[in-house]
Design brief:
Layout lengths: L13 H7 L14 E3 L2 E5 H8 L2 H17 L3 E5 L5 H21 L13 E4 L2 H8 L1 H7 L3 H11 L4 E9 L19 H4 L4 H6 L4 E7 L11 E2 L9 H4 L3 H10 L10 E4 L5 E2 L10 E9 L11 H18 L4 H11 L23 H11 L3 H15 L2
Parallel strand pairs: 2-3
Antiparallel strand pairs: 1-2, 3-8, 4-5, 5-10, 6-8, 6-10, 7-9
Helix pairs in contact: 3-7, 4-5, 4-6, 5-6, 12-13, 12-15, 14-15
């Protein structure tokens, strides 16, 4: 009998994916859009602002966006979501200063899903901009449109995060991928999560970006495959050569102007494009907005718990009083099994897209025969790296 609770790698069906991504977005799907281009609805920020001031019209627009992001093409563009270009320019100056300072210090941040190239990444640009220039931060983030679309997908009390990506001429394209949460795992890791989690993951975050410069096609705006977020086993499929080829053959790009915002489901197959321009330094502030519900009900000091538990578990394992299955369960009840959230400036990915988790450190310490003092020191060092 086929397992219907989990996706398997062999469930990735390129014909089904082709069918899913061959749909067409119609005007009936996006009646409040100014136009539809390449299956992407484009909204005019100047006409949205008065609508967003009226609760009923705001709710209607948000319902339209949520429908498009979830069940239609999966992507929305808001023209001039931030029309205050002076604030964008001030933010650009601030982040360029941060990039220069970080290059002097550590060489700068790396990129996910892309080979090393002519680009610079600022992890946690949200906090860094706020602390460097609070007034610019206030003016820059004062966008009712960005607030409304974030709320349309995640509801109120969402959490904003941001990562600046500056791609200079010659900067390489990314490979096609999906995003956080399951998109930051290998396909094999994703198979360990049941199907409902595959369907839930895209509803926990919203991906977006604000263009800091005019970005024509040759500068490499994000490549997008409309409707691909609706394909169930997609987290297992994006590395498959047939799926990657289909993406490259069918993806679309739209030119963006300074102040335009692009938002899409994290399950949409996408990739930053190659900057083939001679003189455009493509700077986009990437937003990853998180649901308020991605939290546990209590705060727990898992560092202290792990430090206390480690010598007990080590002794019980050595005496044979704790089975391997029991050991895994005890560690799962105590240690943080997920590597995020973390400070990606200091806590770098380890052998994949994610750093080592606290539970991973716990298991490694047992396997390597660490003594409690060494484990405690590594635990504290890891906690320090995680801290913002």
């Amino acid at each position: 009998m086929k397992d219907t609770a989990y996706y398997a790698l062999e469930d990735a069906d390129i014909d089904a994916f082709r069918a899913e991504t061959s749909q067409t977005l119609t005007a009936d799907d996006a009646p409040q859009a100014a136009e539809i281009a390449k299956n992407i609805p484009l909204y005019d920020g100047s006409t949205l602002r008065p609508l967003l001031e009226d609760p009923a019209q705001r709710r209607s627009l948000q319902a339209e966006w949520a429908h498009i992001l979830g069940r239609r093409s999966g992507v929305v563009v808001i023209r001039q979501a931030q029309p205050a270009h002076a604030a964008i320019d001030a933010a650009t100056d601030a982040v360029n200063a941060i990039i220069a300072a970080e290059k002097d210090g550590s060489g700068g941040g790396g990129d996910h899903f892309a080979a090393a190239g002519a680009n610079d990444r600022i992890w946690n640009s949200l906090q860094k901009l706020c602390l460097a220039d609070p007034e610019t931060f206030a003016r820059y983030h004062a966008s009712p449109e960005i607030d409304a679309i974030s709320e349309s997908w995640l509801g109120p009390n969402y959490q904003m995060t941001a990562q600046v990506n500056l791609v200079r001429p010659g900067g390489a394209a990314q490979t096609a991928h999906r995003d956080y949460h399951l998109g930051f795992m290998s396909p094999a890791e994703a198979t360990t999560y049941p199907i409902p989690i595959h369907h839930l993951s895209p509803y926990l975050t919203l991906q977006g970006g604000l263009a800091h410069v005019d970005t024509p096609i040759e500068a490499g705006p994000t490549k997008l495959l409309p409707f691909s977020q609706m394909y169930g086993p997609g987290y297992l499929a994006y590395e498959d050569p047939a799926f990657a080829a289909h993406f490259e053959e069918n993806c679309v790009q739209l030119p963006l102007q300074k102040g335009d915002a692009l938002f899409f489901s994290p399950a949409l197959f996408h990739a930053a494009g190659e900057n083939r321009s001679n003189d455009i330094h493509r700077l986009v502030n990437l937003f990853q907005v998180g649901s308020a519900f991605g939290r546990s009900i209590e705060t727990v000091d898992r560092v202290a718990m792990s430090q206390a538990l480690f010598p007990m578990v080590r002794d019980l394992k050595a005496s044979g009083d704790l089975s391997d299955a029991g050991l895994r369960a005890a560690i799962a009840a105590c240690a943080e099994g997920y590597a995020f959230p973390t400070n990606l400036d200091h806590d770098l990915p380890s052998g994949g897209l994610a750093p080592e988790s606290q539970a991973g450190l716990f298991h490694r310490a047992l396997a390597e025969g660490m003594d409690p003092a060494t484990f405690a020191a590594e635990l504290q060092a890891q906690a320090h790296r995680h801290a913002a």
